[in-house]
Amino acid sequence: MAAKQSVNSANTNPVPRLAEIIAAHGHVAGPTLPTLHAIQAEFGHIPAEAIQMIADAENRSRAEIHGVVSFYHDYRETPAGRHVVKVCRAEACQAMGGEAVAAHVAERLGLGFGETAADGGVTLENVYCLGLCATAPAAQIDERPCGRLTPERADRLLAGLIR
Amino acid sequence: MSLVEEHDFGTPAVKSAVTVSLTIDGSAVSVPAGTSIMRAAAEMGTSVPKLCATDSVKAFGSCRLCLVEIEGRAGTPASCTTPVAEGMVVRTQTERLKRLRKGVMELYISDHPLDCLTCGANGDCELQDMAGAVGLREVRYGYEGESHTKLEKDQSNPYFDYDPSKCIVCSRCVRACEETQGTFALTIEGRGFDSRVSPGAHEDFLSSECVSCGACVQACPTATLIEKSVVEIGQPEHSVVTTCAYCGVGCSFKAEMRGDELVRMVPWKDGKANRGHSCVKGRFAWGYATHKDRILKPMIRARITDPWTEVTWDEAFAHVAAEFRRIQGQYGKDAIGGITSSRCTNEETYLVQKLIRAGFGNNNVDTCARVCHSPTGYGLKTAFGTSAGTQDFDSVEETDVVIVIGANPTDGHPVFASRLKKRLRQGARLIVIDPRRTDMVKSPHIQADYHLPLRPGTNVAVVTALAHVIVTEGLVNEKFVREFCDWSEFEDWAAFVADPRHAPEAVEKISGVPAAAIRGAARLFATGGNGAIYYGLGVTEHSQGTTTVMAIANLALATGNLGRPGVGVNPLRGQNNVQGSCDMGSFPHEFPGYRHVSDDATRETFEKLWGVPLSNEPGLRIPNMFDAALDGSFRGLYVQGEDIVQSDPDTHHVTSGLSAMECVVVHDLFLNETANYAHVFLPGSTFLEKDGTFTNAERRINRVRRVMAPKNGLADWEVTQRLAQSLGLAMNYTHPREIMAEIAATTPSFAGVTYERLDELGSVQWPCNEAAPTGTPIMHIGGFARGKGKFVITEYVPTDEKTGPRFPLLLTTGRILSQYNVGAQTRRTANTAWHPEDLLEIHPHDAENRGLKDGDWVRVQSRAGETTLRAHVTDRVAPGVVYTTFHHPETQANVITTDYSDWATNCPEYKVTAVQIAPSNGPSEWQEHYRDHAALSRRIKAAE
């Protein structure tokens, strides 16, 4: 999932809008995941305030909501960069030379996996299988899947992301 | 002595009428259908290796250690999650299973620190045991790879540590928090290798939703969650089963000892009140027992402004005897009296009332139950014939719809609350009648179907309105009423409640509760199946406390909710032995067993036994003692284990009464607030230091067992006995069992109670006599103790304490989980981490009107007095209502409460005080005056 640029800057209070989103999902059976999806779609991450609010709305504990958020890698607790690069580290890609590509991408971006550039430009992440094994090594840049990666091809794809 | 061993069957017991037979390792075994293979094996004495299973929580099947082979089935299923089947042939030990288990253990140990010898759980670690059980001899993976062994400890909780480096992620703690405690404060965060136990969301234990009940620590198979006291002291070497001295739930604990040092208190699985569960108070808050503030030597002084002088026990007893005899000589026989304690044992309470009736020669004995559950005694005796709750706690497991009125069980009776919440999560329905939005109204996985947030003081109107709906909508259980009650009495009552002035629409105007909610709640209670009513001091501590108790009884009678499991009228008793102290004849008008002092036959029984004539005139109640002190006719008082200055209403009246007396004897663990007005201090002993019994809210008589010698030299019963001897009364018991024998010999409902029987059965619920030799879990089966159940007309009479322009808000008081009553015990433990001071809860609207913000100092003023404390702005209380606790003497909430009281029993009206709230910048005049006096009064003269 791409990190859609947040309409709410870090400085505005997210609570009123969170309340609206949570209320809008009040009628859904098993509302936790859809609510979290909607929040992430709007904010680009799950603001810390959301945990208690969802817990209250669903009559559950903070721990339970935190358990859900932390279980799914795609729910972020902090905003991602403007672009998200996910490099597959799973077995099929490893067999096709994916680890060299991964190391190259990390070096090129100057980021470790799980890190976001200081200027908020790019977030680099691991992913364990994108289902693109037939075109391994694979990655995903924002919403775009990329296959048959080589260090050179990766450079071309990343060029547009790096100022 | 050795440790009391409790066998872990791995999975919970299953109730089933069907029995299944199978073969395990060649032996035949029969168990109830639905039982796990693991439990079936355990019941025949075969332990299957396990880590994630324990019999307090449901099977989970994650550790993969309890695998077994089943003939005719492929693979190696987990024995914890596989139920038995008829004719099944199971093998728990085969070559294949050995190999698999060893492999699993190898993986666990490859990510576990190898510091067993210096680990706090050494000797009490299931991981260690399992490594031994599977014969682990090497870990082929080495310890070089990525691991969790360097993770930091969370030591924020004052009582236990969380060391994630030792965690095997079995989820036992998470499941215990959910299933046993019902708080849901823990989760497994992350996934895969990152999975770790997490309190709350990125929080430490102390700041999380955790209520520190200890269920997770109890469930943990390793040293991951471990008591700090075990880390500091080491493993206990023997243990003794005893009873908690905090609330009226009466939890059974194992006091685990090293010599005479208490290492930890562990809830006892066979305890019938708590079924292996505990709360933060009983489990952890016992440090007061060895607190440096404890006074261990008797002390006397001439004036309450003098410093104390330490004396020998002999000197102290001689002094008290001389003073009391002097006062009686000067002012008459009735010029002295005493107060028994609901915190002391039955035996001790019995002795105090005996001392007063036989030694003082009057009936001036009262008890702190006067200020809590005296209306329960009166009301339930009138309605059913017995001054006690009708059920056992197990009954809640069969209830379908619950009314909780004027009680806050998650704070006041936490272990019962956990049992109730478990039943609610299974689908029972809930009606909460309370001015505050308590955690029973809404908290994780709990939501009341109806919350009736009534104005304080309108209980009678609301409960009668519930009856109105039941009667006028034809929801009465006529069959029950015709069989077990007086029909014409019922008809009178039905005509009374059917009057339109009791209709919900009329009562809405008085109580502020929407009529529709009253109607809905009444219909639910009358038609929802087994209906049970649980109530607390929010019912009794009113000018119409007794009337509400009777209205509750009416409701149970009209709906036929009495005389079987799952129903009943259940007072939640405040202190550990409120029921017992009342049973033991603590009231000025009643001998043990609730027999009136004017009853000649009863008096004769005791006169014959005690060898002295006894008065047939009821004595003074506590508030009357203060009145009499002020008018000069009452001059001497013996107070055992109650802090009347802090706990009784209208502090000014109490302190002026005490100040007017000539000899006030306080018998307590600490120099409490009452001791500031005392002339003699007799040091008390803790529940760890004496033998005896407590009787809990379900009439259950539980043994209290001495695990260490009294630090003050004498158990409380010995102090009373020596005092009695000094007054010339022949009292020569050598052990509390002899006192219980006397109680049994004189009190019909206790006739069958002996220490031998208690040891044999674990506990007994009275009545225990020839008709019920093993006790009576549920009362009034097939008829009432008084014959017919009695319907009482319950006219609502508003309290005289009214709001007006000067005092526009209603103050109600209560308590909080981590503190207990006047706080003398819990304030001297690390429980202050959760509740360091009393706070005033005020609704945002009322706060805004007064320009108050959360945390501001405020002045609370009533017609009786004023005090200051900090405000907590919250919508838990309704607009117009404020709330505080009374745990801290600095606050002295009872300076504000009035001397209005219950019409029948004088139980104070703590729950309704008209007040005004204003910003404040310092303590009130009274607080300053009191602080000065307390400092002056607490001085102890250096020993010469």
From TrEMBL, chain A:
Known cofactor(s): [2Fe-2S] cluster
Transmembrane segments: none
Pfam families (alphabetical): 2Fe-2S_thioredx
GO-annotated molecular function: 2 iron, 2 sulfur cluster binding; metal ion binding; oxidoreductase activity
InterPro entries (UniProt xref): NADP_DH_HndA-like, NuoE-like, NuoE_N, Thioredoxin-like_sf
Binding locations of [2Fe-2S] cluster: C88, C93, C129, C133
Keyword annotations: 2Fe-2S, Iron, Iron-sulfur, Metal-binding
Protein family (similarity comment): Belongs to the complex I 24 kDa subunit family.
Protein name: Formate dehydrogenase subunit gamma
Organism: Zavarzinia aquatilis
Biological classification of the source: Bacteria, Pseudomonadati, Pseudomonadota, Alphaproteobacteria, Rhodospirillales
UniProtKB/TrEMBL annotation, chain B:
Residue span, 4Fe-4S Mo/W bis-MGD-type domain: 237-293
A GO-annotated cellular component: oxidoreductase complex
UniProtKB keywords: 2Fe-2S, 4Fe-4S, Iron, Iron-sulfur, Metal-binding, Oxidoreductase, Repeat
GO biological process, one term: formate metabolic process
NCBIfam families, per database record: Fdh-alpha
Name of the featured protein: Formate dehydrogenase subunit alpha
Family: In the C-terminal section; belongs to the prokaryotic molybdopterin-containing oxidoreductase family.
Record-linked SMART domains: Molybdop_Fe4S4, NADH-G_4Fe-4S_3
Stored Pfam families: Fer2_4 (PF13510), Fer4_7 (PF12838), Molybdop_Fe4S4 (PF04879), Molybdopterin (PF00384), Molydop_binding (PF01568), NADH-G_4Fe-4S_3 (PF10588)
Domain 4Fe-4S ferredoxin-type: 158-189, 201-230
Domain of life: Bacteria
GO molecular function: 2 iron, 2 sulfur cluster binding; 4 iron, 4 sulfur cluster binding; formate dehydrogenase (NAD+) activity; metal ion binding; molybdopterin cofactor binding; NADH dehydrogenase activity
Species of origin: Zavarzinia aquatilis
Signal peptide: none
Chain ranges passing through the membrane: none
PROSITE patterns according to UniProt: 2FE2S_FER_2, 4FE4S_FER_1, 4FE4S_FER_2, 4FE4S_HC3, 4FE4S_MOW_BIS_MGD
Domain 4Fe-4S His(Cys)3-ligated-type: 96-135
InterPro entries given in the database record: 2Fe-2S_ferredoxin-like_sf (IPR036010), 2Fe-2S_ferredoxin-type (IPR001041), 4Fe4S_Fe-S-bd (IPR017896), 4Fe4S_Fe_S_CS (IPR017900), Asp_de-COase-like_dom_sf (IPR009010), Formate_Dh-H_N (IPR041924), Formate_DH_asu (IPR006478), MoPterin_dinucl-bd_dom (IPR006657)
CDD domains: fer2, MopB_CT_Fdh-Nap-like, MopB_Formate-Dh-H
2Fe-2S ferredoxin-type domain mapped to chain residues: 18-96
Phylogenetic lineage: Bacteria, Pseudomonadati, Pseudomonadota, Alphaproteobacteria, Rhodospirillales
